[in-house]
Amino acid sequence: MSDFTLQRRYLSGARFLSETPIYRIVGADHCRYSSRDESVGRLVVRNVKASDSEDDEVLEKMVPTDLMTPTGTIGASQGWVATLKDNVVWLQDDLNPFASDSSPKRISLPRPKTSPDCQTQMVTNVALSSSPEDEDCILAVKFVGPQLSLCRPLLSLCRPAEKNNQWVNIRIEDPGFFSSRVMYSNKEKMFSMLGRGGTHTGSWDLENHRSRSFVYRKYKEYLPSEMEDMSRCSRSEHLVEAPTGQTFMVKWYTDIFWNGPDDGVRRWKRFMVFEVAGGDAIATDDIEELCIFLSIKGEPFCVEASLYGLTPNCIYYVGDFDYGKVNIGNNERVGGYGFSPAPYFIPPQSS
């Protein structure tokens, strides 16, 4: 069986589904392109299955190099990246290795309106409920501050983008969500966010809002030196759902590493993983046959490791200046360092 054909198990039986491997975006290589046009370059990726090696793949697929800048994208979900240009949100499949090279899909959405006492220039991240090619797909953009905006991309070319292609702005009153990352919950069929510190969640759709608080029932014990290290770190919280129906919260600790007096970069230091069940958050160092994918700007996802030739009980991550694979059981890391111009994983795509 090839890497592109994987057997997927279902409770009702077994079936075969053709899916692509998982790739990490490395960059764009215009040096090997014969044209002098430096606005495009060949997409460079790395197969996560071979992430222990240093072999990048330079594809024939051409991509705009402006997507490979720190402000070139505002997030990624479902294999699509989002950009914000002149206050207009775009969805693009340019960085998907398996999307069309000759006819990339680029969807321009209406300008989001700024709610009172909010801003629409700085974005935390984005999330899609499904592929933008689905008629019922909804895009969520979480702006820094109180505003969460939802919109239907309506990719279908046979229907005009009428009134239902407008933004719905939701004002979040709880300041604990002002810097939170948004994800789509397939269980709740709503967009969810973790509050500051990972103490509670909020979920929203076009009409409803619900919230839930957590009680931490179990913590992993750490040495005093480990606790001191974590106290110096910055931390972000990430919510991710597994194909098995479980929900996990990951606390991502990063610290500044200095290359010189004025040259510091933020890198991974530690992960803490909790399984969220009802109102309980239970620390765990074993997610069994699963692995989690986290990126600094992309929507997280989780897969069964054996289906993709990956290492179980691991977190694969990419930050702004480092990337790697971390064993949840012992926090050991294998990876590399370097600037990631588009710090994203492309999740499995049905082909």
TrEMBL record:
Record's InterPro entries?
A: F-box_BR-signaling (IPR050942), KIB1-4_b-propeller (IPR005174)
Taking every annotated instance into account, which residue ranges of this chain make up the domain KIB1-4 beta-propeller? Answer: 59-330
Q: Which PANTHER family does this one have?
A: OS07G0183000 PROTEIN-RELATED (PTHR44259), PROTEIN, PUTATIVE (DUF295)-RELATED (PTHR44259:SF93)
**What name does UniProt use for this protein?**
KIB1-4 beta-propeller domain-containing protein
Task: State the organism of origin.
Answer: Brassica cretica (Mustard)
